[in-house]
Design goal:
alpha+beta, 12 strands, 21% helix
Length: 228
């Protein structure tokens, strides 16, 4: 469960990062920093995702897919809803103060204050308490020349935390020329690889009021509510 939530915040930290990002003259970081500055200017971001997790310990692969919505209001408050549709339904919602997690298979909904997450490197980025260049070393793995030859129009970057983090050993980030994240791969401290591919990405595709309505979720009758 902790891994699931950590992966969500990894994705959020990269897609929707902290305030006060400035343009960079360093070619190793400029594309990433400029991308994040662009995404920060959006009010809403919606997408579908496919997730594959490969565990070195178990040797088993797990596949999942679902949808995500990110919201940034005019006062800078960031919220999100992350729905896993298959293989088991999960709904993860955060309004920046409260984190709720519904697990259909367990018939449970867990409600946490986000205070317990504030020491997490990924949540720090998501909540706007730090910037990506202060927490990660960024290295470009595919040059502009190689991009042109591949025809994919993607830049590939590796991000490594500057201090030890139990949830994130490294990240790979694929960015397209239109300032869109197409794929992210997360490697944790157990060498488990989680890859998320994004599609049907819409920037400001819904209004803030429509997005806010998605933050309302009532679990089915009989669901066990656990407050931590």
């Amino acid at each position: 469960m902790k891994t699931c939530i950590s992966i969500v915040f990894v994705i959020l930290s990269i897609i929707w990062t902290a305030p006060d990002i400035h343009a960079s003259s360093d070619k190793e970081t400029a594309s990433v920093v400029n991308l994040l500055a662009h995404l920060r200017s959006l009010n809403t971001l919606t997408f579908q995702f496919n997730q594959t997790t490969v565990s070195e310990l178990s040797g088993r692969n797990r596949d999942a897919h679902g949808t995500g919505t990110l919201i940034r209001t005019e006062d800078g408050v960031t919220s999100m809803r992350w729905d896993y549709l298959e293989p088991d339904r999960q709904v993860i919602i955060s309004d920046g103060t409260t984190l709720s997690m519904y697990f259909a298979k367990l018939n449970q909904m867990i409600i946490n204050s986000t205070d317990a997450l504030k020491q997490d490197i990924t949540y720090s980025l998501f909540s706007g308490n730090a910037d990506i260049t202060s927490l990660f070393t960024i290295t470009r793995l595919i040059s502009e020349q190689e991009i042109g030859k591949s025809g994919e129009g993607l830049e590939l970057f590796r991000l490594i935390p500057k201090s030890h983090n139990e949830n994130v050993q490294s990240l790979l980030l694929w960015i397209s020329r239109d300032n869109t994240i197409r794929q992210i791969q997360v490697k944790d401290s157990f060498d488990t690889l989680t890859t998320l591919s994004f599609s049907n990405i819409f920037k400001n595709g819904i209004s803030l009021s429509e997005a806010a309505s998605l933050l309302q979720f009532t679990p089915p009758a009989g669901t066990e509510i656990i407050r931590q």
